[in-house]
Design a protein that fits this description.
The protein is an alpha/beta fold and 316 residues long. The protein contains 14 helices and eight strands. The two termini are 26 Å apart.
Length: 316
């Protein structure tokens, strides 16, 4: 909830200290409830002022002015709003962040991953450089949201031919003995009949195929490490991890229900980031830094990462 998210910001400094120790500059995606209230954005001011993080825009339509739409589950996905309204909500949030935190945001993540065909042009018109809304193989269509089942890799790609807006998907993949057949098998497991017979859970427990998102929320450290090694072996070179700030307040999400579980959550983060740095040899970067790096490559390499906007539209 909105109040929980604001309350959770009191705990952001302890989280930031973990990132500082490991050498990570996080990107905090904040919505209007955080950006507009001193108790929300206040804890971020010192972190921002010292350059310890980046800030991005995260639109939850039901709290983000102007609120002229009908309140409904469908309209909780920004992509279902009229494009002019979607654009104005993003503009209002960006201006609020700039006014209260003194930064001009260049990264966007749609609330509920609700990116649609009109979103890339809206972002480019407002000079955004990064979108982080795609969740490969995810399907939110039954809830009224987008369907990302057409995306099978987490590799970043350009959303425009001029290569000014970079999509950085949330790292998602499959581990297990049948992970090589995931593209076709996963759809069957998650079909209506597959869920009736609990096939996704059964296949995961048997070590046959397990869909893993790179997050400390509901994912074990062992699974996250296995996914990382698997993707690196397959040639993936960019991994993106994410979680909700509400998990910093015990009892607000299913993933953290006590102070002891919050300690475990923090320990998971530090252990994974240390593993990525020291065992994998990974280098931490921000999406904006990644965009600048990709733009510095020669034309042939940049062309290999391009993807037409039509591909994104077809995923809905």
């Amino acid at each position: 909830s909105t109040s929980t998210a604001v309350h959770g910001m009191e705990r952001i400094e302890k989280l930031q200290q973990i990132f500082d120790r490991v050498g990570v500059k996080p990107l905090y995606m904040i919505d209007y409830s955080i950006a507009s209230q001193p108790e929300g954005y206040g804890p971020l001011t010192r972190i921002v002022a010292r350059g310890r993080c980046e800030i991005g825009a995260h639109v939850h339509p039901w709290v983000n002015p102007p609120i002229t739409e009908e309140m409904s589950a469908r309209n909780s996905f920004p992509c279902n709003l009229p494009p002019k309204l979607e654009a104005e909500k993003i503009r209002v949030l960006s201006r609020t962040i700039e006014a209260n935190l003194g930064v001009r945001v260049r990264s966007y993540k749609a609330g509920r991953y609700g990116i649609g065909a009109a979103t890339p042009q809206i972002l480019m018109d407002q000079d955004f450089k990064i979108d982080l809304s795609v969740v490969p193989t995810g399907n939110y269509a039954p809830l009224g949201g987008p369907n990302f089942q057409g995306f099978h890799r987490s590799t970043p790609f350009w959303l425009d031919e001029e290569q000014t807006l970079l999509e950085v998907p949330l790292t998602t993949g499959f581990i297990g003995a049948l992970s090589g057949k995931a593209q076709g098998l996963y759809r069957f497991l998650n079909s209506r009949i597959g869920r009736v017979f609990h096939l996704p859970g059964i296949f995961a427990r048997l070590g046959l195929m397990n869909r893993v998102i790179l997050t400390p929320e509901g994912v074990t450290l062992k699974e996250a490490k296995a996914l990382t090694r698997h993707l690196i072996d397959k040639g993936e070179r960019v991994l993106a991890m994410a979680f909700h700030s509400t998990s910093l307040t015990p009892g607000s999400t299913p993933y953290v229900n006590s102070e002891a579980e919050l300690d475990s959550f923090h320990n998971w983060l530090e252990a994974y980031l240390t593993f990525f740095r020291d065992e994998i040899g990974g280098i931490f970067t921000t999406p904006l830094e990644l965009s600048a790096t990709l733009n510095g490559r020669d034309a042939e390499e940049r062309e290999a990462t391009a993807m037409p906007v039509g591909k994104l539209a077809s995923a809905r």
